[in-house]
Write a structure and sequence with these properties.
about 15% strand; globular
Length: about 675
């Protein structure tokens, strides 16, 4: 069947003659006569099958829907992978209104009731709304025609498909690996271990894993297979780097003294000085802080190898506790706590004061609300220029401008990012400048610890600032060492659904911007809370944000661009690929993720192979920063990450002044001129 000719985009404001307005002092909202909007043909989903990905199928669809943020009408589809909004006017996908199901944090049903004129006091009109709150910093709202069941159909489809009961029901398992196959990540982990031990000329293989011949060593460190079947620690990888002079028996004994058996192990070792960056969970010192373990103290002391100063003296050890001191002490009541420097040879304990996952989740929500309130494409359909009847930014007066800036500060997000940056820079400086070893931990050793260790690694080792190195870093310190991605991103795990997505219905009469309070004042029912188990938190997103801050400070030091980081983060949040499913290496092995799902890294490499790929940083100069990056404290003042934070609320501003994009266009034109020149001169 031939596709119908494009129609003019139907807009909310196209029907202003049939709308009633709210009091001007309280903002404005169109009471739409939705029955006057001609819905597109129901065959639209069949016409536009080219928009669907492999194995993606339409579950439900709604017609004559309006994306309130941009005042654009279209058709809304729920597929087995995403919520997809197709413009009536252009027949193209609208990016703002299209979001992977896994990227949706909450969705709410709302009705906006608008009172009619005084002589029609008994009558009122209403707008039926569906609010979508994303994990990628967007809040979008769709309006539906009254006296239809379209909103209910879409809402019910989201309820069924957004959080499947089993991990195997996710789209990534339906799609399969396709052309983006995932070679065994265990092999890649061993290759990184070999590099760290100075044996990068060797290549790991599955046969080495199967016969246990991967347990190599150098003068100081060795690869242990103590956890090869995950019997010692279920959240650690199958292979661990430990001091060469520590036996497997000591390793196993030390595991009983650390939370979740996450013993101190080496994450990175300096190839010249022998200093190491190690990680673990908190020690189980107990309420009185007096419990000790000889095996643990012996293992930690072995991290302090002798300095090459000719005197045979041992290097200093810093134990960096990522938590506030009071939180570490409070953990003693539950058996945890922190080390005493008197029990650990030549050590100094430092507390970084970084808040927990709950504080980060709340901070992220406040930042998202701030951007939606003061953005150009806000979820109430109003620009920040017009909010509260004003005609300039922030409501038309300086006090409103100051209040909005204060709101950004009150979100706390930039302060939290600064804390992660400052802690990581401190760790990197101790290793690089003092040749000291640093042991990092928080409570469980998989959230703040992963942030600090991996960011310090990125500062210390130029290899991690390349594409292949960045992949190795993420696979080592986040995936292999058990950051609980299912819990933190909010996806099903082996034990079932990680958390229940918010599904709530609300009605009310609004006298001002109708959706401004939506994400803050709509309290979900207890049984439907999206954070019922309090495990969701944007910890990994915050780390990628921190990486983007380093990229901004050192634009010549990274092979990859900010665009790469955005695409990478989108892939993680979408759960389109299997790499970041589950909570540990063991769980991914049990699910058969490597064989059953596509590989994120292969997909990004395919994008990178295309001519003019925006993933390459045109300013990259590996010789300019071929050593550690040690930013001074004054340089660690973070800013909003425009390409990520502003792309939905302020799309124009997120790209304004993008020198990299301009340089890339110039490079493409230069390449074209070179081709013309060669054809002219050489004729081929």
């Amino acid at each position: 069947m031939a596709a119908p000719r494009p129609r003019r985009s139907v807009s909310v404001r196209d029907h202003s003659d049939s709308c009633e307005r709210l009091d001007a002092a309280g903002g404005s909202w169109d009471a739409l006569e939705w029955t006057k909007i001609e819905p597109v043909t129901r065959s639209v989903s069949h016409i536009n099958l080219e928009f669907l990905l492999e194995a993606e199928r339409v579950v439900e669809e709604g017609h004559g829907v309006v994306l309130v943020n941009t005042d654009e009408a279209g058709t809304l589809f729920v597929t087995n992978f995403r919520l997809l909004f197709l413009s009536d006017g252009t027949r193209n996908i609208v990016p703002l209104g299209t979001i992977p199901l896994a990227t949706i944090e909450k969705f709410n049903k709302m009705v906006l009731k608008i009172q009619s004129a005084p002589r029609q006091i008994d009558k009122s009109s209403s707008c039926r709304l569906l609010q979508i709150i994303g994990k990628d910093m967007r809040i979008i709202v769709f309006g539906f025609r009254p006296r239809t069941k379209q909103r209910r159909v879409i809402f019910d489809a989201l309820s069924r498909n957004t959080k499947p009961a089993r991990i195997w029901d996710l789209y990534t398992f339906t799609c399969g690996p396709s052309k983006f196959s995932n070679p065994n990540p265990k092999v890649r982990l061993l290759n990184e271990y070999f590099r760290l031990l100075g044996k990068g000329f060797l290549r790991a293989s599955m046969s080495m894993i199967e016969d246990g011949s991967f347990t190599l060593s150098n003068d100081l460190w060795r690869i242990s297979d103590t956890n090869s079947n995950y019997s010692m620690c279920q959240s650690y990888p199958f292979a661990l780097i430990v001091p060469k002079n520590i036996s497997d028996e000591d390793v196993i004994q030390a595991s009983t003294f650390r939370a979740r058996s996450r013993i101190p192990v080496v994450s990175w070792c300096h190839p010249g000085t022998g200093a190491v960056l190690a990680r673990s969970s908190q020690p189980l010192v107990g309420l009185m802080m007096n419990m000790r373990s000889n095996a643990d103290e012996k293992l930690v002391a072995a991290l302090c190898t002798r300095l090459g100063d000719g005197k045979g003296s041992r290097r200093k050890l810093y134990i960096a506790d990522a938590r506030p001191r009071k939180n570490a002490l409070a953990n003693g009541a539950m058996g945890g706590g922190s080390e005493s420097s008197s029990n650990y040879f030549q050590s100094e304990i430092v507390f970084f004061g970084i808040d927990n996952i709950h504080a980060m989740r709340e901070s992220f929500g406040r930042l998202r609300d701030y951007l939606d309130t003061h953005g150009a494409a806000s979820s109430d359909g109003m620009s920040s220029f017009l909010r509260h009847g004003g005609w300039t930014w922030g409501g038309g007066n300086l006090s409103s401008m100051s209040a909005s800036v204060s709101t950004l500060g009150d979100s706390g997000w930039l302060i939290h990012v600064q804390s992660v940056l400052a802690g990581s820079a401190w760790i990197a400086a101790r290793v690089a400048l003092e040749s000291a070893s640093v042991l990092v931990h928080c409570s469980d050793g998989w959230d703040r610890t992963s942030q600090l260790v991996s960011l310090a690694n990125l500062m210390l080792d130029p290899y991690y600032r390349t594409f292949t190195g960045f992949q190795a870093l993420v696979e080592k310190d986040w995936l292999a060492f058990g950051h609980p991605f299912s819990d933190r991103v909010g996806m099903p795990s082996l034990s079932g659904t990680s958390y229940e997505l918010t599904r709530q219905s609300s009605t009310g009469s609004f006298s001002s911007s109708p959706l401004r309070q939506s994400s803050g004042s709509y309290t979900p029912q207890a049984s439907n809370s999206s954070h019922a188990q309090n495990n969701y938190s944007p910890i990994f997103l915050q780390w990628v944000d921190s990486v983007s801050q380093l990229l901004r400070m050192y634009p010549f030091a990274f092979e990859f661009s900010s665009t790469f980081l955005v695409d990478f983060l989108d892939c993680v949040l979408s759960c389109r690929f299997g790499n970041f499913l589950c909570n540990s290496e063991k769980e991914r092995q049990q699910c058969g993720v490597d064989e059953a799902c596509g590989c994120l890294w292969a997909y990004l490499a395919d994008l990178r192979s295309q001519e003019g790929s925006a993933h390459y940083n045109l300013f990259y100069d590996p010789l300019k920063h071929n050593g550690p990056l040690l930013p001074p404290a004054a340089a660690l003042a973070p800013t909003l990450w425009p390409q990520f934070h502003l792309r939905w609320a302020c799309p124009s501003e997120s790209e304004a002044g993008d020198l990299e994009a301009k340089c890339r266009n110039m490079a493409v034109k230069f390449s074209e001129l070179q081709k013309v020149f060669h054809l002219t001169i050489f004729g081929h």
